[in-house]
Design goal:
With 364 residues, the protein is α/β, with parallel strands linked by helices. It contains 13 helices and 14 strands. The strands form four sheets. A seven-stranded mixed beta sheet has the order 1-9-8-5-4-2-3, sandwiched between helices. Bound molecules: pyridoxal-5'-phosphate. Keywords: Pyridoxal phosphate.
């Protein structure tokens, strides 16, 4: 049996430091917005080369609070990838704005900078590139279009902890980056958690207020805020795991290299890595013309796979009101019909990768 992702083994590798982190929080007598959150914010900001990090409850709220802190709301349009996890779109809807999908580059699967200008209207306020599957989107041309049209850039980094763009870690290229520490992400908590990184001190300050009832000083509320704080406990657990992120990403890269080499002559479309990107392989996504049957056969052979994602956001019932008909975003629709994510993770072995390769040689 080769599971898609063995979360239990990942966390058991850090059992000692996780237990120590729990004891620290237990004995501190302080459970919300204390030392652990402050320290994790500093450590994570340093890790991704950003001036500030603000811990929040989860990745979706990291995205929606960041949009809110940028002043985006009702009547505004925000450009989002047609090919992403629906949370990117939901954040736009949650602030009352309208998601406007733009198709991905058909090779990198990330937002295509050449298609963005055509989607900009007088209402467009922001661009939301997603570093999908752990690979940075082509940020320089996206930032250039944004500057030209006076748009904010909010990156969705939920799948890309440690990913590099032109040698520099994602974290402060655009105006802000939203992060998720959902357990299955490259840096995962033992529950829900999220953060925003930015070099904009005023934006960070607004986010600190928004996550905490719109208050910077206890019982004084400057805006209508939320309760969306990163827990002390999750912050402590994340601090215990942060030192393992680099080696975990390195193992993922090793597995990815093995797959790319071993699957070269198998009838699958393999991931392509543009020269500007050093991915962290949150997912290793292949395409196959008969994806569902391939997934079934792999399951019979004891190999776990997942589809990221089976239905694109514009065809979900939740977005029926946008009236985007099937066939109107053909690149995203083709991707959703063919993609399959192979097992990959920080505790997976090369022997397991070889077994996946052998099975695909037989079954694909
Ligand atoms: C996981 C994910 C999110 C949402 O994060 P949560 O912490 O689960 O709310 C947003 N965007 C992308 C691309 C994701 O993969």
């Amino acid at each position: 049996m080769i599971p898609f992702l063995d979360l239990k083994s990942i966390n058991l590798e850090s059992a000692e430091s996780l237990t120590a982190a729990f004891q620290r929080v237990l004995n501190s007598g302080w459970y919300v917005l204390g030392e652990e959150v402050t320290r994790f914010e500093q450590e994570y900001a340093n890790w991704c080369g950003a001036g500030h990090a603000v811990g929040v409850a989860n990745g979706l709220e990291a995205l929606s609070l960041a949009l809110r802190a940028m002043g985006i709301g009702a009547g505004d349009e925000v450009i989002v990838p047609s090919n992403t996890y629906i949370a990117t779109w939901l954040a736009v809807s949650h602030v009352g704005a309208t998601p406007v999908p733009v198709e991905p580059d058909p090779h990198s699967y990330n937002l295509d900078p050449n298609r963005v200008a055509a989607a900009i209207t007088s209402r467009t306020r922001a661009l939301m590139p997603v570093h999908l599957y752990g690979q940075a989107a082509d940020l320089d041309p996206l930032l250039a279009v944004a500057r030209q049209h006076g748009l904010k850039v909010l990156e969705d980094g939920a799948q890309a902890h440690g990913a590099r763009y032109k040698g520099r870690r994602v974290g402060a290229h655009g105006d802000a980056v939203a992060w998720s520490f959902y357990p299955g992400k490259n840096l995962g908590a033992l529950g829900d958690a999220g953060a925003i990184t930015t070099n904009d001190a005023a934006l960070a300050q607004r986010l600190r207020s928004l996550r905490n009832y719109g208050s910077s000083l206890k019982y004084h509320n400057e805006v209508i805020g939320f309760n969306s704080r990163l827990d002390e406990l999750q912050a402590a657990l994340l601090r215990a795991k942060l030192p393992t992120l680099e080696s975990g990403n390195a193992r993922r890269a090793e597995i990815a290299r093995r797959y790319l080499d071993g699957l070269r002559d198998v009838p699958l479309v393999l991931p392509q890595v543009p020269a500007f990107a050093e991915p962290v392989w949150h997912l290793f996504v292949v395409r196959h013309h008969d994806r569902d049957q391939l997934a079934r056969r792999l399951a019979e052979a004891g190999i776990g796979t997942v589809i990221h994602y089976p239905v694109p956001p514009h065809l979900q019932p939740a977005y029926a009101s946008l009236g985007i008909t099937p066939g109107s975003l053909p690149i995203a629709e083709a991707l959703h019909a063919e993609v399959l994510s192979l097992p990959i993770g920080p505790t997976m072995t090369i022997e397991q990768a070889d077994a996946v390769i052998a099975a695909l040689r037989r079954l694909a």
